[in-house]
Design a protein that fits this description.
By secondary structure, this protein is mostly helical. Helices cover 45% and strands 0% of the residues. The chain starts with a helix and ends in a 33-residue tail after the last helix.
């Protein structure tokens, strides 16, 4: 390959070099950009005392026998 070839075919040479660079750079970018997302932060729950009144059984109405 001499200088006159590059002077005539500079567009083709540039295209081929761009394709070769893409073959190398695109897979690297896909691997580096494909990291799993970090785990979500767990919400911090502060224990709050809850007081509940004991449930008292309420009498249910019974059917009257006649």
């Amino acid at each position: 390959m001499n200088r006159s070839f590059f002077a005539r075919e500079w567009g083709a040479v540039t295209f081929v070099l761009t394709v070769f660079l893409g073959i190398i750079i695109v897979p690297i970018a896909l691997v580096l950009g494909n990291k799993p997302p970090p785990p979500p932060a767990l919400p911090t729950v502060s224990p709050s005392p809850t007081v509940s009144a004991p449930a008292s059984p309420s009498p249910s109405p019974s059917p009257t026998a006649r």
